[in-house]
Specification:
mainly alpha; 54% helix; 93 residues
Length: 93
């Protein structure tokens, strides 16, 4: 049986999609416990304060994000992501 090049390309693409969907991604902080990163769920106030610092420090007046600076110091962003991942929408007043 001869498989056409377009069908072969489609099969390769399908396999890549399936493999990508099966990838497990850790939440920030859960992968580096040995590095001393705190893994507790932050309080709402702490998460909102961290998010405010991210916006004030890494987003300019035009809405542009300084991703390079954020990559150097992502702790506040990681704190907010841990909060969002852990808190169910029903629990937010």
């Amino acid at each position: 049986m001869i498989i056409s090049s377009s069908l072969r390309l489609l099969l390769v693409f399908f396999c890549m999609i399936i493999t990508g969907c099966a990838t497990h991604v850790n939440l920030p902080g859960t992968f580096s416990q040995d590095a001393g990163e705190h893994n507790a769920i932050p309080s709402r106030a702490a998460a909102h304060a961290a998010w405010a610092r991210v916006l004030a420090t890494h987003v300019d007046a035009r809405g542009f994000v300084d991703f390079a600076a954020l990559a150097i110091a992502p702790q506040d962003l990681h704190l907010m992501v841990r909060y969002v991942a852990a808190v169910k929408p029903e629990g937010i007043a």
